[in-house]
Amino acid sequence: MSCEKRKQTVNARDLDEMIMANDGICLHCGEIDGPVEPDARNYKCNWCGCYTVLGAEEAIVEGWLEIEE
Ligand SMILES: [Zn+2]
Q1: Residues with beta carbon < 5 A to ion ligand 1?
Q2: How far is the CA of 14 from the centre of ligand 1 (A)?
Q3: 19 alpha carbon to ligand 1 midpoint, in Å?
Q4: How does pLDDT run across 3-56, given as a tens digit for each residue?
Q5: HEC string of the chain?
Q6: How far does the centroid of ligand 1 lie from the alpha carbon of residue 56, in Å?
Q7: What residue ranges do the domains of the chain occupy?
């Protein structure tokens, strides 16, 4: 199974909720997953099974998560 990472986009309101809830995002399937630490890296996704879940803040810092207006 290929677990390629893809850039994800999220709107600002959803991002706020993610950070408040300590949710992360899977860079493979795009599902919200958690709770995880804000700086989590490469955690296992409960949806697709790939080790591609990053904490919300980490995903932004690393450039994987873009905020749409
Ligand atoms: Zn996933």
Answers
A1: 26, 28-29, 45, 47-48
A2: 18
A3: 18
A4: 999 999 999 999 999 999 999 999 999 999 999 999 999 999 999 999 999 999
A5: CCCCCCCEEEEHHHHHHHHHCCCEEECCCCCEECCCCCCCCCECCCCCCCCCEEEHHHHHHCCCEEEEC
A6: 14
A7: 8-68
